[in-house]
Design a protein that fits this description.
147 residues; alpha+beta; 4-stranded antiparallel beta sheet; 9 strands; 20% helix; globular
Length: 147
């Protein structure tokens, strides 16, 4: 599933063992550093790191234990992430991750049930309706568009 030339499986397995019940967001940045995060706070920290170092996400995966799901971010202006809980009337609440791909002012969102990594729904939203603090922008594409 992963590009074996860029992602170190040993590092992923070692970190995943620290919390076997976590659903990880695995990000390979444009400087070839691997980041594994599991919360919105860590995502915001990653956003700050990317902004300070002019980086973007070149590969993105959701992973629960040995089950990775690749999210294609190759042709987008930014990546959006939030984690939340979906209430079910008369049933158990479900934890979800919403991953969005920003393109031309629109965010194409996919809501994933976790830890199962099953798509609950997909929809399009305006960028203005999203939490701006959770969008990691591809600054190189933004600069090219302005020129």
């Amino acid at each position: 599933m992963y590009d074996q030339n860029k992602i170190d499986f040993k590092e992923i397995r070692k970190k995943a063992r620290t919390d076997r019940d976590a659903t990880w967001i695995v990000c390979l940045l444009t400087d070839d550093n691997l980041k594994m995060i599991k919360s919105c706070k860590e995502w915001r920290d990653l956003k700050n790191h990317c902004e300070e170092n002019n980086l973007f996400i070149q590969d993105l995966y959701l992973q629960f234990r040995s089950h990775p799901v690749k999210i294609d971010v190759s042709d987008c202006d930014g990546v959006y992430f939030i984690n939340s809980v979906t209430a079910v009337m008369g049933g158990l609440s479900k934890q979800t991750y919403t991953i969005g791909k920003l393109k031309d002012g629109k965010v194409f969102k996919t809501i994933w049930n976790v830890p199962e990594l099953i798509i609950e729904r997909e929809f399009e939203d305006d960028e203005d309706n999203c939490f701006q603090e959770t969008i990691i922008r591809n600054e190189k594409k933004t600069k090219n568009r302005k020129e």
